[in-house]
What we know:
- This protein is an all-alpha fold.
- The protein has helices spanning about 5-30, 40-60, 70-85, 85-145.
- It is rod-shaped and about 100 Å long.
Amino acid sequence: MGNEIPLQLAQLLRAILLGSILALGYDFVRALHCLGGKIWATTLDILVSLSATLSIFLFVMAEEGELRLFLLLGTLGGAVLFFSLLSGILRPIWAFWIDLFLFPLHLLEALWRKLVIFFKKAFSFVRKWATIAGTLKQDDVKEGQAYGEEKEEIVENMP
């Protein structure tokens, strides 16, 4: 097969588009990094790397099955073009949508914290009350006196 310039130019443009789409996906996943710790971030990075590798492999196989250097350079160029032009604009948009999506979870978390504080106070009161009531009953039983009865004091007249 001969070298056809329009065909190769179309392949290059598709490679640039693929690179831009992969960079868009990575930019979105980068916004999701704030939801977890190191393990979450590592898992997301591995998923992005695997999906990018699979996408490039399927793209190359669809384009006559030959790995050409200009296809890889076009994909890299598309990613660089996206990060240079659109990433800074889209980053606050991703953050807004993620915050909007997670807003109900933040409300539930705040409600849960308030309930935990309420029940800690309530059960602390009950525990303290039971301790005091138990202590009073034990003191009364030791002295042989019923609960609630007053002690009769014997007052001796001193000469």
